[in-house]
């Protein structure tokens, strides 16, 4: 049997002219932009990648597919050596992404036009250190989360500022129980807690995360896993220490630290009834929870069955200790005093 020379049946193409290569390079860059946009990347991210590629192209002076590892060594070793680490990482990431795009889309066509085999010039030897690759984020286990909050609860008995620390504990615990985002929990107010909905009550999240310019998306979150008991404890025992008026519309559920807790203020002639501007000289608090109290711990946000079980009266001049006592059916005087208030009581730990 005679042997014959194997002949390539593919199309025989002449080397591309500089004008054709320039037009092809423009088409490749346009395809790269379209591919990144189809992956739903932000316009700012795509503009940043194109800016990095254009600067590398201006320095290199030739199409990027001609870049070899030695050229990358010169670029990152001399041209951008003085740049910050974040800038060098951004250049490297943009260049690697572009070459990955060339390998998947134009590898055969570029080899036919230029005879070049596409290979990324960045490897393990010349890639900038500290590359910003997305690492594997392993969430903590259930026992680890329980250990975190158990230690936090113990710290409440010895911390220097009990009220803000307890507020932070309540916020973090609520986030872990019902799955809120930090900004969603921060923007809650007392009217967002709907105790009458469902078995445990629900949270009306008004400032949920939006997408594609849709604005905040609202949703309703059930108070499961003991979140209802946690919020009741916070309202009844802690919320009144913050200098916030529960009768004002939009009162925040977690007031900021800038609001000085009433129980930690220096000596001054002030009572919880001072929030009622109609009766500035009033010296006696109402007998029931229906009065306008500045530090009534948000009883208006509680169910009627819970609100009627507590009185606005506090032991030790009505605002000294913050310890609530049941309704006794008699009016309790809260005389004005200049006595320095004591710290909040800590005999009621969080229920969860």
TrEMBL record:
Pro residues composition-biased segments: 341-352
Keywords in alphabetical order: DNA recombination
GO biological process: DNA integration; DNA recombination
Gene3D superfamilies: Intergrase catalytic core
Source organism (scientific name): Streptomyces mirabilis
Lineage: Bacteria, Bacillati, Actinomycetota, Actinomycetes, Kitasatosporales
Keyword hit for rRNA processing: no
Alphabetized GO MF terms: DNA binding
Coiled coil stretches, renumbered: none
Protein name according to UniProt: Phage integrase family protein
Keyword Phosphoprotein included in the entry's annotation: no
Top-rank lineage group of the source organism: Bacteria
Region (Disordered): 327-352
InterPro entries attached to this UniProt entry: DNA_brk_join_enz, Integrase-like_cat_sf
